[in-house]
Amino acid sequence: MLKKLTITIDEEVYEGLYATVGPRHISRFIEDLVRPHVTQQDLAEAYRQMAEDEAREAEALEWAEATIGDVGDAAW
C-alpha cells in the first residue's frame, strides 16, 4: 500500500532532483535511498532475490570479467 507524504526541502535540492532524476521519478529515488535505513531487511533473502535475477547476474558477471584486467595491470 502506498502512502502520500509531503516533505519540505531546499529549492536547490529540489531543482537538483528534478534535473537529475526527473519529475516523475523523485518519489521512487527518495524511497530507494531511505528504505535500507528504515526497514528491517533479511540480507540472505535480498541476496537470493538478486541471484534469481538472471539479467542482473549476467550484467554483473560481464562487468566483473571486463574489469579484472584492470587490476592485473596495476602497479603495486
Feature tags:
76 residues; 4 helices; 0% strand
Shape: extended
**How many β-strand stretches?**
0
Mean pLDDT reading: 86
Low-pLDDT windows of residues: none
Strand content: under 5%
Computed over alpha carbons, the radius of gyration is 18 Å
Order of helices and strands: HHHH
Task: Give an overview of the whole structure.
With 76 residues, this protein is mostly helical. The chain has one domain (11-68). Helices cover 68% and strands 0% of the residues. The chain has four helices and no strands. It has helices at 11-20, 26-38, 43-52, 54-72.
Question: Summarize this, please?
Answer:
This protein has 76 residues and is an all-alpha fold. 68% of the residues lie in helices and 0% in strands.
Write the layout of secondary structure elements.
Blueprint: H1 11-20, H2 26-38, H3 43-52, H4 54-72
